[in-house]
Amino acid sequence: MLLAFATSADIPRLTALVNRAYRGDASRQGWTTEAHLLDGQRIDAAGMAEMLAVPGAAMLLCLAENGELLGSFYAHATGPQVYLGMLAVDPEKQARGVGKFLLKAAEDYGRQHGCTTSKMTVISVRTELLAYYERQGYRRTGATEPFPTDPRYGIPRQPLTLLVLEKPLALPQ
């Protein structure tokens, strides 16, 4: 697996990957689907372009040696904290270490930018995903955030809340 950073040229395939990983019938092939919780898309090309333009942020890509896009993860370093979001792995490539590869790379990105804490939000009813991140050292802070109401990010089928998870990051020696 190879690590790369997304550019605007990657927006079409990146948007397709994220939507395939989170929504619709294709997402049901993997264990990270949100298709049972939300209708609509996860992100559009304009939203992806906005994310890529944020100062201090990067969309990390996991590529196969042949250049195939296996997964992606958003990392935004601000001060002592790196926010991680939208981990997406091709549903047909899940459970092969791509997510762990990207999680480590995103945490390393935070460390390289002087961050001492990694933060993410997870939908409260995603018990399997919460358990996954807890196995990776993340802990629930007790804080919550409202689920976005912008339909560009999906239309909830039920009321949803985001739980805040954090993990301390040891800086490189």
Automatic annotation (TrEMBL):
Keyword Transcription: no
Keyword Transferase set for record: yes
Organism: Hymenobacter ruricola
Name listed for the protein in its UniProt record: GNAT family N-acetyltransferase
One Pfam family recorded for the sequence: Acetyltransf_1
Origin organism lineage: Bacteria, Pseudomonadati, Bacteroidota, Cytophagia, Cytophagales
Keywords: Acyltransferase, Transferase
Residue ranges constituting the N-acetyltransferase domain according to the UniProt record: 1-170
SUPFAM superfamilies reported for this sequence: Acyl-CoA N-acyltransferases (Nat)
